[in-house]
Amino acid sequence: MTAPHSALKLPDDQRIVITGIGLTSPNGNDLGSFREALLEKRSGVQPYEIRYFGETLAGICDFNATKHQSKKDIRRGTRAGSVGVYTANEAIADSGVDWENTDKSRVGIYVGVTEHGNVETENEIYVIKGFDYDTSCWSHHHNPRTVANNPAGEIALNLSVTGPHYTIGAACAAGNAGIIQGAQMLRLGECDLAIAGGTSESIHTFGIFASFNSQNALATHTDPAAASRPFDKNRNGIVVAEGGCLYTLERLSDAKARGAEIYGELVGYAMNTDATDFVLPNPERQAQCVQMALNKAGLEANHIDILSTHATGTMSGDAQECKALRSIFGECDNVRINNTKSYIGHAMGAAGALELAGNLMAFRDGVVHPTINVDELDPDCELPGLVLNEPEQRPQVDYILNNSFGMLGINSVVIIGRV
Amino acid sequence: MTPAEIRVEILDILEDISPDEDLNGLDDQKPFRDQLELDSMDFLDIVMELRKRHRVQIPEEDYGNLASMESTVTYLEPKMKDI
């Protein structure tokens, strides 16, 4: 380590490490293929059509849901649940944990979501429209599908986990928020293994497309792969994506005891609130959140090797985040800054967790994947260390800082250190 | 609908509800629950599908008639004969 972060002073049972990763992204259904797509600059954005709204673009996942679920459970549950079940099973398998002999009452499931229930409610309204809005045709599955804990609950059912399970509703900061919640519960001794991260089924609700469109914040482009273009002068909005990324988090003491492979350690985190607007970000509060995470980690800004930005491709949001980052990293020569939404669009509740996963392998190979689609850098987004359009090899990557912000002014930052 | 047609319709509904099950060997006299993994939500699906597809209303006190294929067809015959 080039910098002694604060977590090193903690006992091993208070240090939280990532030991398994399960994910589905529009451009990959496991960490290896996702990472490969990022280094090969392969987009996962495709043409998409959804009822009422019509033709648009989206990041669409093609994971094999029946790998871990029966067709009946897929039918009964939700897309977010299926994403969760797939990614949770993949994370456990990746962790190498002896799942059969794991005490399921000591496993906690903490799943970040931007929203949940819109898809299922829209579907039911569509169905009863065909019956002249006769509510006796409204499905009895609607409530279990739309309760806010659904995606986490479906994972618990599938894996027979009897420890705590719930979702963390945190808009587009949810992926980081899920990780933070999992770490806190491990530190409190409320569970011994946390399955934590975020999921999104948002491309299946026409409302999210219609609402972003009404806000003039939905991306359009003749080339789907070029539609998501954070930091580019000609960006014109968000590409909505589905996806999921769940981690197995453990105390370092437990991970060491079983000889687990460790992807990284959560060395710092922070969450705060703008309290200024429903949708417009507040760079002062975002910067404060980043600084709080650095302070918690005991790190200086220039210790960060990769900064994974939240930027979604909106004119205002990208510039505001860059303003916030400039106030902290403006004089740094070490940090390299990238954006993963430029490949996959905005995976909403999964975004923070997925974007972190896309960067984690840099601890091993030292390569920073670039922000793609930046044909003309917006001067308002200029920052030292932007990695644009081509990957950059670094001598060593020790710390990754991951931003994830959301509506109603919710901000989250996690810092992961190489172990 | 004839009893044979009603049986085909129920089988179609069961295929939707239990897509993982093989319904070829279904014994009409035996209760569904002895042969298939069906719970109360699945039986509500049968009720719902009949309502949606044919506007057949099945009051809660009659749910017991849906125990087996034979009892279901017998129960539905007067309700669906004019469909």
UniProtKB/TrEMBL annotation, chain A:
<protein>
    <submittedName>
        <fullName>3-oxoacyl-[acyl-carrier-protein] synthase 2</fullName>
        <ecNumber>2.3.1.179</ecNumber>
    </submittedName>
</protein>
<dbReference type="InterPro" id="IPR020841">
    <property type="entry name" value="PKS_Beta-ketoAc_synthase_dom"/>
</dbReference>
<dbReference type="GO" id="GO:0005829">
    <property type="term" value="C:cytosol"/>
</dbReference>
<dbReference type="Pfam" id="PF02801">
    <property type="entry name" value="Ketoacyl-synt_C"/>
</dbReference>
<keyword id="KW-0012">Acyltransferase</keyword>
<dbReference type="InterPro" id="IPR018201">
    <property type="entry name" value="Ketoacyl_synth_AS"/>
</dbReference>
<dbReference type="InterPro" id="IPR014031">
    <property type="entry name" value="Ketoacyl_synth_C"/>
</dbReference>
<dbReference type="GO" id="GO:0004315">
    <property type="term" value="F:3-oxoacyl-[acyl-carrier-protein] synthase activity"/>
</dbReference>
<dbReference type="InterPro" id="IPR016039">
    <property type="entry name" value="Thiolase-like"/>
</dbReference>
<comment type="similarity">
    <text>Belongs to the thiolase-like superfamily. Beta-ketoacyl-ACP synthases family.</text>
</comment>
<dbReference type="InterPro" id="IPR000794">
    <property type="entry name" value="Beta-ketoacyl_synthase"/>
</dbReference>
<dbReference type="InterPro" id="IPR014030">
    <property type="entry name" value="Ketoacyl_synth_N"/>
</dbReference>
<dbReference type="GO" id="GO:0006633">
    <property type="term" value="P:fatty acid biosynthetic process"/>
</dbReference>
<feature type="domain" description="Ketosynthase family 3 (KS3)">
    <location>
        <begin position="13"/>
        <end position="418"/>
    </location>
</feature>
<dbReference type="Pfam" id="PF00109">
    <property type="entry name" value="ketoacyl-synt"/>
</dbReference>
<keyword id="KW-0808">Transferase</keyword>
From TrEMBL, chain B:
<feature type="domain" description="Carrier">
    <location>
        <begin position="1"/>
        <end position="80"/>
    </location>
</feature>
<dbReference type="InterPro" id="IPR036736">
    <property type="entry name" value="ACP-like_sf"/>
</dbReference>
<dbReference type="Pfam" id="PF00550">
    <property type="entry name" value="PP-binding"/>
</dbReference>
<protein>
    <submittedName>
        <fullName>Acyl carrier protein</fullName>
    </submittedName>
</protein>
<dbReference type="InterPro" id="IPR009081">
    <property type="entry name" value="PP-bd_ACP"/>
</dbReference>
